[in-house]
Task: inverse folding
């Protein structure tokens, strides 16, 4: 849970974004079709800071067991940072 809370720190956002920038488009393309819609919606809500503690714990377990979801989360965080910078 604390790991998710710390994602709200802008420097960690930026670190995730730098990581995602180094990932090839082919990797993101393959992941997009493999992420279940409910998990994808939760990743977006996490990036927006709109998940309850219980949902955060569930999603953290999903992230640990499926590290490929980190790329999608990084995309949503990048979108959020871009919106916040406007």
Result:
């Amino acid at each position: 849970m604390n790991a998710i809370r710390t994602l709200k720190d802008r420097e960690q956002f930026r670190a995730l974004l730098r990581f995602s920038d180094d990932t090839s488009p082919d990797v993101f393309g393959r992941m997009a079709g493999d992420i279940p819609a409910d998990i994808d919606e939760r990743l977006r809500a996490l990036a927006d800071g709109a998940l309850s503690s219980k949902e955060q714990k569930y999603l953290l377990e999903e992230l640990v067991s499926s590290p490929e979801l980190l790329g999608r989360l990084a995309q949503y965080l990048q979108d959020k940072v871009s919106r916040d910078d406007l």
Remarks:
- Residues 28 and 71 are 7 Å apart (CA to CA).
- DSSP finds six helices and no strands in the chain.
- Residues 69-85 form the longest helix (17 residues).
- Helices lie at 2-6, 10-21, 25-34, 37-47, 53-65, 69-85.
